[in-house]
Amino acid sequence: DSVCLFHLLLNSGYSFAVAHVNYQLRAEESDADEQFVLKLCQENGIHCHTHKANLSSSNQRSIQAEARKIRYDFFESLMNERALDFLLTAHHAGDLTENALFRFIRGTGLRGLQSFSQVKGNIIRPLLGWSKAQILEYLERHKYRYRTDESNQGLKYSRNKIRNLILPAMEEDLPNIQKRIGRSTELLQADYDLIQT
After folding, report:
1. CA spacing 20 to 30 A to 20: which of 48, 91, 159, 191?
2. CB 53, CB 21: distance < 8 Å
């Protein structure tokens, strides 16, 4: 996802830098991911900022929350230090769907059911309208190299169960479920904005 966003920005002529967090959760694989990102940036003349994180929690749910906090704290500090205007993330339609379902199952209100929006303050998610299949098709059509995190295919985390078990089962009876849920989050956002005015 991030490699797709990288090439879209590069090909569009935008001025940008890359930030990568190595959580060191997958030993050599995590280090190989970091080296891949550094090499990709070096080959294309893009400045890359890296950060090695040491996660302290042993609870799987807490690890994800801690990782998210570390990631966004790192991004925020970089933006302040380098006077960067926007933070772009490579979240796609599948991520939005998984997040909306996860929040609904866990229990949330109107604000939480919005999942995340394409623009929130200075955070922009340009790929929210893209499915994972479209991202992979783009990368393969242009022969762009990328790496995959094999831990995303397992069932260790609740979000992985939603991604790998629940959504494929629902897709059989409800085609285009990602677009449907995406549309629902847009409507919820409009409702929330109306209530706030």
Report:
1. 159
2. yes
Residue 68 CB-density burial (10 A; 0-12 exposed, 13-18 middle, 19+ buried): exposed
Residue 134: per-residue pLDDT: 95
Look at residue 153 and tell me whether its pLDDT is greater than 90.
no
Residue indicated by tokens 């906090």? 69
- Amino acid 193 reads D
- Is it the case that residue 105 has pLDDT exceeding 90? no
| E strand or H helix that includes residue 22 | strand 18-22
Tens digits of residue pLDDT in 46-83: 999 999 998 765 556 578 888 889 999 999 999 999 99
Q: Taking Cα atoms as reference points, which of 67, 120, 117, 94 lies closest to residue 4?
A: 94
